[in-house]
Amino acid sequence: MGQIIAKKSSAYYLAIPAISVASPEQFSTGETMVDTAYAKIGAGAWTSIALADSFTEIATTGMYEIDLAASELAYDQVLIKVTGATMADDAVLFDLSVKLVDDLNDFDPAVDIVARVTLVDKVETVSNIVNVTTITTTSEQICDVFNSTQPYRPGVSGILANVRDSLSDPDAERFTELRLVRLLDKAQKDLNIRAQILRAKVVFQLVPTQSVYTLPVDTRVITRVLNEAGPVPLMTHEEADAEYGLTWESETGNSLKALIYDKQNQKGFKTYPILDNPTGDDTLYDYVPDSDFGLISVIGGFTSISDYGVSVVDDSATFSSPYGVVGTFTEIPDVLRVTMYTLVNPETLTAAQDGNLVWTYSPLQVPDTYDTVLEHYVTGIALRDDQDTLSRELSREHLASYGDLVQKAIKDAARNNIQSVGSGRTNPPKYNSVI
Hints:
Layout: E1 2-7, E2 12-17, E3 34-40, E4 47-49, E5 56-57, E6 63-68, E7 77-83, E8 90-97, E9 114-117, E10 137-140, H1 142-145, H2 155-167, H3 177-195, E11 199-205, E12 212-214, E13 219-227, E14 230-231, E15 234-236, H4 237-244, E16 252-253, E17 258-262, E18 265-272, E19 274-275, E20 284-288, E21 296-297, E22 310-311, E23 328-332, E24 337-344, E25 351-353, E26 359-361, H5 371-385, H6 389-415
Parallel strand pairs: 1-8, 15-17, 16-19
Antiparallel strand pairs: 2-6, 3-4, 3-7, 5-6, 7-8, 9-10, 11-24, 12-18, 13-14, 13-24, 17-18, 20-23, 21-22, 25-26
Helix pairs in contact: 2-5, 3-5, 5-6
């Protein structure tokens, strides 16, 4: 059974695996999960509740997902039990709170106040107690108490501000802004590689008689490929040589059997076999707008006796067709379309300073959930630049914290079916602490 700490009365997306009874080391696919849910408030009794959504499988992964509504989590605890035909019984317990740790920084200086108390540094006898100065309190906004006029700054500026606080370098006297920006860029790229955070889904158009294709420049690794028939095997050149023989690169056919990639550079791939021009019914079409007179468009709600919609044309155009002027439609058979799932690289982080010496930054592509992880990396590497013993010790502490948080991110990725845990392994690969 799993336990989740979540925010009360907030919607929640839940994904869990179905553990096979026959083979506990594997997930069970094709399950029809039956869920029962119970809730309680305080020390009260557990009561049965109904869930609006139901568990459905994510593709054929053996992972099952459900969207829980805010009203279904408006309790102190919620227990969800799931059963299936070939899976082991499982359960998830939600411990729900009005506020989580992430909500502790939501102080509003316009509303929330703290008391400033003046204490009397004097011990008085009973006879003189009437002369003791009265202890007074005044209400003062917390931002004034700390003499702070700077608001919270999210994103790159917020991360760098926190890093400078840790470095005791608020005025950039020891570390330049560009140095910290370069370290932050290295941090997001290192974290992305280790935890496989940034992913993409690309619908790719194959071309008859073409064998070599190039993927988008930000592609790092191809993880999965699907076409109309289901999963398409991914093979290295060595595996293709062993499976199809040494002439596979020149063979042709009308059915895609595999995509061949280079282990050292997955920005391109080859098809096996090279696809011939397909025959038969085609169900997908690609419009090629090579007409100078506009496109055919259909107006919603417009009733017309023509099945061809309403033609948008140049006023000066003359034509004899009752259907307007159209471009060329090129048939794209389903057999030539593949869907690719890839891991991608983030764009390089850049910074610039304007005439008023104000820095602006390109956006981070790693989600802000990982801001603290990035701060530990930047602080640790920056402190490692120093030669004194204390800075080196602090550097080791920050990099150790970074390593621990990366391990958690890797495990989260494995639980969310982002990362494939190899055959026979139940744990994700260990983080390499050498940075």
